[in-house]
Amino acid sequence: MGLYDVSIIxxxxxxPDAVLTNADMEAMVDTNDxxxxxxxxxxxxxxxxxxxxxxxxxxxxxxxxxxxxxxxxTEIDLIIAATFTTDLMFPPLGCMIQxxxxxxxxxxxxxxxxxxxxxxxxxxxxQFLQTGAYKTALIVAAEGITRYIDYTDRNxxxxxxxxxxxxxxxxxxxxxxxxxxxxGLIDFDLGSDxxxxxxxxxxxxxxxxxWLATLSNRDEVTPYIWQDGRAMFKAAVNGMxxxxxxxxxxxxxxxxxxxxxxxxxxxxxxxEAIGERVGIPxxxxxxxxxxxxxxxxxxxxxxxxxxxxxxxxxxxxxxxFTAFAGGLIWGSALFRM
Length: 337
Known about the structure:
The chain has helices spanning 22-28, 33-40, 54-69, 93-101, 117-130, 154-157, 209-216, 229-250, 268-278, 289-292, 299-309, and strands spanning 5-14, 19-21, 44-46, 78-82, 107-111, 136-143, 163-172, 184-192, 200-201, 226-227, 260-263, 318-325, 329-336. By secondary structure, the chain is an alpha/beta fold.
């Protein structure tokens, strides 16, 4: 435990206006609405416009979170942006957000843990706040995934959408010093297995094709997102389930005492399998998959912000966050709101 507790005090989000429905998918590839819904739970997804950027939606989500928190941008000490689809190779998206919101007193950088990016960035930020190095952090996850999709591949193009989500973290005095239950980040569990990079990856166009073929054990490698669906499903369910259980067991907390599960929004079947194995029912699970699809790092904060705005998160609630990504990367975190 650090010098301070770390609480989530506000959230925000932004998605592009353009929508790709399952009917739109039917016009592109051999698929249909029923097939997509029953296998993924996705009804539609949002797509960046031709002149719209990841930076645009990241700044908008950040501003919404700042407004919800009722703070000034100059109060923010730290900005961490989670993404793998930045508009620029450099500077970092975090610096572009700093510029866009006027957070002149903040230090800013990016992190890339793909679909687990928001979870990792939130835990990173919490470490800075727990030590007292900073007081207020802005965590933003933003992705423009549809620009890395092969729209002739029906197994992948139906899954992904664009969007951004944000959260404001603040360091607060230790709850035990105030004779109250600990609030904010209570515990976390993170893991990686780099030996399985071939399960899901997205190459840069500049990467040598011969090296990529060796890495992926495939003859043809295109500059689009690719994943082994079956392997990803099994690894995701096992990884997130085991991670959640480790955190709850360490804290001697029963699944029945968890008020909300905020999982990565990849596939409804994956989310349902995790809930069943851990013992957290569907009515305690934050979902935005149906309307947004898999938005990678942005998926978790989009779901969190949706539930926050619906008034489904209350003071003192125990919330479990969990995510899984290509890498392979996984993790969970337990917060008391």
